[in-house]
Amino acid sequence: MRDGMTDSYFRDPSGTYNVIRKIGEGGGGIVYLAYHRNLKKYVVIKKIKTVSDDLSASRVEVDLLKNLKHPRLPQVLDFLVVDGGIYTVMEYISGRTFKEYLDNGVHFEVQDVKIWARELCETLQYLHRQKPPVIHGDVKPSNIILMKDGHTCLIDFNISAAGAGYGAKVTGYTAGYSSPEQIAAAEYNMKEGDPEKWRSVDERADIYSFGATIYHLLTGRKPVIRSGAIADIRAYRSDIDNIFADIIMRCLAFSPKNRYQSTDRLLYALTHMAEESAEYRRMVRRQRIIYALCILGLIASLATVIAGARWITGDVSREYTVIGGVGTVVFTVLLFLLPGRFKEKRQELLERLE
Fold first, then answer.
1. Could you tell me the fold of the domain covering 96-272?
2. What is the 3-state secondary structure (H, E, C) of 125-170?
């Protein structure tokens, strides 16, 4: 027996769960697929890490996570204490992890990765906006499932990160995906016997792991820090646009202060990439020039009307008035119609660039 479980049997006194098979194992313990007899659905049972031996404190942490409701997160269903071990029961998500695809040599298109990056960032944003914030602590391809509908689901979030105030005490890390400060904190905490003195990380650690995951999806390799920096993603993927590449590399900055400071800011960057493109900026610049010329044309037309009325006499005066009047009407109509037309054109370009 290990942590209250064996490879085929979960010691559940209530008889609610029928363990089917082991589906994973990591620093947090063994993960099992089970069948919930009462709910008549498949679930995942996992032993959780906790920085506290106080079961009531752990209960608070799990209750916080049970209240999470997001389409890209599995629902936490139950909390169990078996043989001194603390377990969570979560909704089972059908699909394959991105690690499975990467291990099979699957090549992902940049546009697809952009969509998944936005979804993942939205999920992290939801976690980080909780009070207190929930730091996932282990964002990586093996913890992201690509579901049958083409959307993503972030699994295995770090329960010890919940209820820990505005910093998550670190209990482990994953090489290649965890931020430098998370690795340093984990190594320190492994040596420090008093959990009250353990070091913590904030949401910028998740932002680094987000960047590392997207980097791996696009290049087929984990980012490696050499001399305090990671090789630019464009060295391995030539078809990635500069804006998306810059976003990923900023997430991977060695120092937390040089990354996006929140998932709010990161999501804004991810959802406004097209607006930062050179083609879009050229269109906006052309539209502004055209609009400015129309304003000048209106001013010149009005000036022509005034000149014909005040300072010029005879037939020439009438010509000035007519020409100026026509110009005034034309440029007034253009100034009224152009903003809507310009907006349509910008939207068409944004949709094409997306």
1. Transferase(Phosphotransferase); domain 1 (1.10.510)
2. HHHHCCCCCCCCCCCCHHHEEECCCCCEEECCCCHHHCCCCCCEEC
Interval 52-109: pLDDT, tens: 555 555 566 667 777 889 999 998 888 887 777 778 888 999 999 999 999 999 999 9
| pLDDT band at residue 194 using 50, 70 and 90 as cut-offs | confident
Predicted confidence at residue 167, as pLDDT, reads 57
State which amino acid sits at residue 248: I
- In CATH, which superfamily holds the domain spanning 17-91? Phosphorylase Kinase; domain 1 (3.30.200.20)
Give phi and psi for 255, each to the nearest 5.
-90, 135
- C-alpha angle 234/235/237, rounded to 5°? 55
Neighbours of 57 (CB within 10 A): 13
Number of CB atoms found within 10 A of residue 155's CB: 24
Rounded CA-CA distance 128/136 in Å is 9
* 85-91 β-sheet, strand order: 17-26, 29-36, 41-47, 85-91, 76-82
For 74, the token pair is 């599995």
Length of the chain measured in residues: 354
87 CB-contact burial (10 Å; exposed 0-12 / middle 13-18 / buried 19+): buried
Q: Where are the alpha helices (DSSP H) in the chain?
A: 55-66, 98-103, 110-128, 180-191, 203-219, 242-251, 263-271, 278-310, 314-353
